[in-house]
Structure formats: structure tokens, C-alpha cells
Specification:
alpha+beta; four-stranded antiparallel sheet; 22% helix; 45% strand; elongated
């Protein structure tokens, strides 16, 4: 497929058909057309059904002001969350993108919580490595060393639930 995509780019660059480049391989021309067409679902509900049918999904979530790409059973290390205890379950409500290997659904700016539910469990509160801050003023004899460890919270990402919506007509 990589060679096919390259031949399509070359054909576009030289303003020639892929047949001229590959001398008589007529199937290349139709393959170039098919390589760039994508099936677009007609509604959000159809897109959610397509993503739900895929074997694995991912989400892009906004947590503590940063964006993370998350899949089920991931361990996520974030800056310390002070108001949670080990074993607590958090519902991630700022889901920016939901996707699978072949389909992606982006929010505007976020996907509503009614469309996707992702939970994270607090595994532990931990500290990072020792950091040394060395300060010095030259020719004054002033030297100071400060040490500290940054605190972190580790989260285990649960399953990504895409609820089935029953629409009665």
C-alpha cells in the first residue's frame, strides 16, 4: 500500500496518470481513486455505532489542564489530586475525541457525557525523583541547595463505555 500511495503522489506531482508511471498496470489507476475515499457516517449515532463495533477504542481526555490519549487499563500519572483518596473512582467528563483504529469522533469542543463514559480509579499517591535546585551568586560566597520531590497521583483507566441509544420512531 505504501508503494501505491507513493505512485499516486508521483502521478499527481508529474501530472501524469499512474498508468504512465507503471507502464500498463491499469488496476493502479482505480486503486488510487479508492485509496483516498473514506466512508463518512451520516450522523453522530451512526459514528458511535461504528466506533462501538471496533475491537479497541481510545479517548483524548482533558485532565488537570492537560490532554492525554487514553485506552482501557492504562496507568496515568498526573500531578497530585488533593481531594481524592486511594480507591476513589473519577468520571472523566472532558472527552475531546473518541476513536478506534478506523473511525474518529471529535467533540465541539467536548463530546457530551451522554455519548461516552470513561472512569478512572485512583491507584496511589506517589512522589517523583529527588530534584536538586542549586543557587549561586558568583564572587559573593553565596551557595544554596534546595531539594524536593514532586507529588503525583496514579490513575487506572477503566473501560470506555459508549451507551446504546434506543430511538423510537
Amino acid at each position: 500500500m505504501a508503494g501505491l500511495a507513493r505512485s499516486c503522489r508521483l502521478a499527481h506531482f508529474w501530472r501524469q496518470s499512474p498508468i504512465d508511471i507503471f507502464l500498463g498496470q491499469a488496476f493502479i489507476k482505480t486503486a488510487c481513486r479508492g485509496a483516498h475515499t473514506v466512508a463518512v457516517p451520516s450522523s453522530t449515532r451512526n459514528a458511535l455505532e461504528l466506533i462501538r463495533s471496533q475491537p479497541s477504542q481510545y479517548v483524548v481526555a482533558n485532565l488537570v489542564g492537560r490532554k492525554y490519549v487514553l485506552t482501557p487499563r492504562d496507568i496515568l500519572t498526573v500531578p497530585r489530586l488533593r481531594d481524592v483518596k486511594v480507591g476513589d473512582t473519577l468520571a472523566l467528563d472532558e472527552i475531546l475525541e473518541l476513536g478506534s483504529r478506523e473511525y474518529t469522533l471529535r467533540g465541539n469542543p467536548v463530546i457530551p457525557p451522554s455519548h461516552v463514559k470513561v472512569e478512572a480509579t485512583v491507584v496511589e499517591h506517589t512522589k517523583g525523583k529527588m530534584e536538586f535546585i542549586f543557587k549561586k551568586k558568583r564572587r559573593k560566597g553565596y551557595q544554596k541547595t534546595k531539594q524536593h520531590k514532586q507529588t503525583y497521583t496514579r490513575l487506572r483507566i477503566g473501560s470506555i463505555d459508549i451507551p446504546v441509544k434506543n430511538v423510537t420512531s
